[in-house]
Amino acid sequence: MGIMRPSTMLASRLAWLVLACALAPPALAARTFVDDAGRKVELPDRVERVYAAGPPASVLVFALAPDKLIGWTRAFRADEAQWIPRKYAELPELGRLTGRGNTASVEVVLKAKPDVIVDVGSTARTFASLADRVQEQTGIPYVLLDGHLDATPAQIEKMATVLGVPEGGREIADYAKRLIDNLHERIAAIPASERPEVYYARGPQGLVTGLGGSINVEMIEFLGAVNVAGGTRGGLANVGLEQVVLWDPQVIVTNDPAFYRDVWTLPVWNSIEAVRRHRVYLSPHLPFGWFDYPPGANRLIGLLWLADILYPRVFHYDLAREVEEFYGLFYHRKPTAEQVRELLGEPGVAPR
């Protein structure tokens, strides 16, 4: 048997290498996406399973590509589940990676086997660092998008790109842009003297509120009204009842049914102009809050509701029709007339 020359051996190895490459399964294609924190994220060419890191991301993924959402941050309650198709309401609870009371872990994420993790909200360094850390620990791409109201149309388009559903994203983004542009144009014409002072009463006592710049009260500032707690910048904060009395807001908005039920009978609260004039409003909250819970794209319908409340001489929306359009587009189920009546209630009227 002859000895193979080095040149022949090299040629043979190259031949085997070419053959092996030809027979090997193709590598998954990837695309580079720059998120709103300026992070370059390598995404798979096809995204089929999506883990939403927080409630705003859940809402947006559900609106754009419900079959790609692998679970909710919190399981639906019975009164919430009836507003969306059953198969989506029954998706499992996976917990949340970001925000207050985060309940998920890297182990939970890995077990869910997502193609990508997405978050919508703050893009500050804290959240960008969390995204980097989770991505490094799991090997799963993690996208962070700006959650501010003005950014909603761009946010929708970017999420649609991540999910691979640009056509559906364009329709929903166009809806958001029309709504936001129309509100901006009409509010710009309202004199400062006609812009009310508003207090956001969160929690059963109504004594948690959002400070200036807080995403939780962004709707107030977006609509050109005055957040009475806006003199100090920050997030959610506890305040004293004496301070609310001193602010004496003209309008109070709350997301808490218990506070809304009790505020009319509490003597100190009755000294406040908003209560005396029956200008306390409970924001609708099914299947997601209209005001800030969560502070996501679900707030778009809330902007129309709040504009009617703050500027009754300017805005006269047919909210029943608006609800039907928004819910059909974002939640994939148009509500019944009875559901709409229940949802809207009688704003500003003290319960008997």
Summary of the model, kept short:
With 352 residues, this protein is α/β, with parallel strands linked by helices.
Description of the structure:
The structure is a single chain. With 352 residues, the chain is an alpha/beta fold. 42% of the residues lie in helices and 12% in strands. The strands form 4 sheets. It has a 4-stranded parallel sheet. Helix 6 (125-138) links the parallel strand 4 and strand 5. Helix 7 (152-163) runs antiparallel to helix 8, helix 13 (299-310) packs antiparallel against helix 14 (319-331) and helix 14 (319-331) packs across helix 15. Residues 6-28 and 347-352 have low confidence and may be disordered.
User: With helices defined by DSSP (H or I, 4 residues minimum), what is the helix count?
Assistant: 15
The top-level CATH class of the largest domain is Alpha Beta
> What is the gyration radius calculated from CA atoms?
25 Å
Quick one: biggest sheet? 4 strands, parallel
3D shape = globular
Number of strands: 11
CATH topology of the largest domain: Rossmann fold
Distance between the termini: 104 Å
